[in-house]
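Two records follow; treat each independently.
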Amino acid sequence: MNTGQAPHVTGPCSWVPRSGPRTVGPCGPFRGTPAPRNNNVSTGFRSPLGERGAAAVEFAFVFPLLIIFVLGLIQFARAIQVQTTLNYAVQMAARCYAVGSLDAIGNLPRWTCTTEAEAQAVAASISGGLTGCSSTSCFSVTANACGPSITGATPPRDGVLVTATLVFNFLGTGVTPIGAVGSGIPTSVTLGSSACFTKPS
């Protein structure tokens, strides 16, 4: 049923319906008195201050995860470097003891290895003094402990076995990552290596 009144429209050109003559306003012909514009209507855009606040909150969530990721990569690289050093040290020490000597390597002198203690000293020198690792605490040398079995020989094997064991601490010796204690996250890992070198016939 047409009552002769315009519908109640909201927005920048809203008006309040009333009876009266038809008039022409900025938004076209209508009946009634224009209602005041609502300046509190959301436009769907955030203010620059709100955007900065949202960015700060997002950064606060992402930054700790980024730091943990970077530190994890650094510790992983350190562990690989230490493991590689141990591998090379035991190989050179086993060869030195099996052959009886080892030529100079870089700035390291020529070694003579006629005893297990001398072979341990060679391994410690080549390892470059890893933290928490000395000739006796990390390396062990055992003669006639590996290699192919020799029928009728005494001892039956003539290979030199050199082993290494080192406790690698994350973030350095004596440093515990925040939150690691009691959370199941390991603070150290045991690295090991071994090498066997058969004495030349």
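The next record belongs to a different protein.
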Amino acid sequence: MSIYGLLIESRVDIVRRKFPNLSDDEVNQIIDTDPTETKKYILWIAREYDRMSEMSFDKVKNLLINWEQQINRLDYDMLADYNIHHGFDVGTNPNPSNYKDIYTYTLQDVAKLVPYLQKLPTKNELKTIARSETTKIYEGPLDGYNVLIVKPLSYRASCHYGATTKWCTASKKTTLNFDSYTKRGDLYYIIFKDENYKHFEFLALKY
């Protein structure tokens, strides 16, 4: 038997031991529902089937196919943003080490997340969008440093260029601080490219 075959056999055995009330037909249906080569989701499917008592296996299979295609679009800050803006908590205590693990979520959670992820731009698309919403002031040597100076014109651009900082204007939790600053003046971000350091400048409007 191949390594894949042994792995699948082991996973099926775990399902049978954890859910002894499942019939052979139900176990086979769960195995068929998992679209992955190694049947890595069968324990999750069995858990949700046991929890819900009934399930549309075809819909779950399609959902898992989309989960496989979209999950790499999700990052932890994005998940927090989703929960805040949609007024509910998706997942059971998701954290930076498990937020991409499907076992953190119920079937209902996954059904909510997948359509959301499908609408999101990819990371490369986000970079392109952020750059289009930014005025580049200067890029090159300055006092012995290799710097990039930008003026973010949108909250999305502010989050992109302010990533890894604790600046309130780049917080993914709220746009309020960015909106407040930009109503009163201009934001400039100075990025020291070789030093992994960023500096924040704010020029207030003068009347």
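Discussion point: Residues 3-119 form one domain. How would you locate this feature using only the token line?
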